[in-house]
Structures are given as C-alpha cells and as structure tokens.
Amino acid sequence: DDQTAQILNWIKQEINLPVALAVVTHAHQDKMGGMDALHAAGIATYAKALSNQLAPQEGMVAAQHSLTFAA
Predict the structure, then answer these.
(1) 67: which strand partners?
(2) Residue 61 DSSP code
(3) What is the per-residue pLDDT across 11-57, written as a single tens digit (0 to 9) for each?
(4) How many whole angstroms separate alpha carbon 18 and alpha carbon 69?
(5) Contact of 51 with 24, CB cutoff 8 Å
(6) Neighbouring residues of 38: CB distance < 8 A, sequence distance ≥ 6
(7) Cα 19 from Cα 22, distance rounded (Å)
(8) Pick from 24, 26, 33: which is nearest to 59 by CA?
C-alpha cells in the first residue's frame, strides 16, 4: 500500500491527471498488494475472477470487480 500511495502521489504531482481504474493481472503481492491504497483513493479495481478468489487466501484484498473473458 505504501508503494502504491507513492505512485499515486507521483502521478498527481507530475502528471496531474486522475487515475480512473486499475487492472491487476494476478493474485501475487507485487500485483494486488496496493488494493487498499487504490480503494482509499476512490480508484475502481478490476481483476480476473480467479485472482479475486485467491487474493483473500493469500492475505490480500480482492479487486472490486471481476473480469471474465470468453474462450
């Protein structure tokens, strides 16, 4: 969460554009570890349904929305 907050602060200072959403690729700490910071900033989060299922088992916060893809 600290690293994600630092990135969000950098975006605000250097780019000054809003972050609308975040898409995470899988349920590992290096990908889903900043969910609390994203949610606190009001940023919508998305991940595959399986990642959202695995996140709590790995001690992480799931994304707010699940993505599904047709085969």
Answers:
(1) 48
(2) P
(3) 999 999 999 999 998 777 777 888 999 999 999 999 999 999 999 99
(4) 27
(5) yes
(6) 4, 8, 22, 45
(7) 8
(8) 33
Dihedral of CA 41/20/9/31: which sign?
Answer: positive
CA 43 remoteness from chain centre: 8
Q: Amino acid letter at 1?
A: D
If we measure between CA atoms, which residue out of 21, 30, 38 comes closest to residue 55? 30
Residue with tokens 């900033």: 41
The model's pTM: 0.86
Calpha distance 65→43 (Å, rounded): 11
Residue type, 2: D
Structural element, H or E, at residue 28: none
